[in-house]
Amino acid sequence: MTVCLEKRGSRPSLRCIILLNRGRGYNALVITEGSVVIRCEKAEDQSAIRAINESAFGRRDEANLIDELRKENAVILSLVAETERQVVGHILFSRMWIDNPGVSLPAVALAPMAVVPVYQRQGLGGMLILNGIRLLRDRGERIVMVLGHPGYYSRFGFSTEQARGLRSPFPPDAFMAAELTSNTPLGICGDVRYPIAFGCDSLSKLPVA
């Protein structure tokens, strides 16, 4: 399937082409007028991904988290942003759950998301988020959660209102959800359960994306 999107406004128009290979997992390319490619992570990208996260956050915690999520087999989707054949941005989505008595609803955690400082504020983070959400929606995922800045993530459909019924150890003004399908009822309730790698018994360990 090929999806084309044009976005116009105060910024230059953005032309995206997304290629989905359903039979062999996701093979995603997003080509923009700025020569940015958004694609799925390859094995050879892992050292660059570590460097991006260490550079963006100024510490090793997020890079270490990614390694632990890989070991836990919790990674659902990992995308990189590439410009001039250099990987400069990364976003990770992992499996999490919303628990209720007798039933657990699969959900997705967005964290971490990072862009090399020199390339920040150029829209690369938004490209990673939008195309990650689009790919997740295509594969039938229902809800994505993030701990971040509402003023930024509200642009992509996240809100604290959609997370209102979710019980978590995180500040309610920064814990947000985005529902990806019309089949997911508004105000879904339950206890959020992250992969072990997040160490959610300690608030400081969860990265603010």
What report would you give on this structure?
It contains four helices and eleven strands. The protein is α+β, with helices and mostly antiparallel strands. It has one domain: Gcn5-related N-acetyltransferase (GNAT) (Aminopeptidase, 3-Layer(aba) Sandwich), CATH 3.40.630.30. Strands 3, 4, 5, 6, 7, 8, 9, 10 and 11 form a nine-stranded mixed beta sheet that branches. Helix 1 runs antiparallel to helix 2. The longest helix is centred in the middle third of the chain and has 15 residues. The N terminus is likely disordered.
List keywords for this structure.
disordered N terminus; 209 residues; alpha+beta; two-stranded antiparallel ribbon; Aminopeptidase; 9-stranded mixed β-sheet; globular
Short description:
By secondary structure, the chain is α+β, with helices and mostly antiparallel strands.
Write the layout of secondary structure elements.
Layout: E1 2-7, E2 14-19, E3 29-31, E4 36-40, H1 46-57, H2 61-71, E5 75-83, E6 86-100, E7 103-115, H3 124-138, E8 143-147, H4 150-153, E9 166-167, E10 175-179, E11 190-193
Question: Hey, roughly how much beta strand do the residues contain?
Answer: 25-35%
User: What percent of the residues sit in helical stretches (DSSP H or I)?
Assistant: 10-25%
Work out the helix count: 4
Radius of gyration: 16 Å
How does the overall form come out from the CA principal axes? globular
Q: How are helices and strands ordered from N to C?
A: EEEEHHEEEHEHEEE
CATH class placement: Alpha Beta
Looking at CATH, the homologous superfamily is: Gcn5-related N-acetyltransferase (GNAT)
CATH architecture: 3-Layer(aba) Sandwich
Low-confidence parts: 1-27, 202-206
Between the first and last Cα atoms, what is the distance in angstroms?
30 Å
Number of domains: 1
Major β-sheet, in short? 9 strands, mixed
Here the CATH topology equals: Aminopeptidase
- Write down how many β-strands occur, each being a DSSP E stretch of 2 or more residues: 11
Mean pLDDT: 83
User: Helix- and strand-based class?
Assistant: alpha+beta
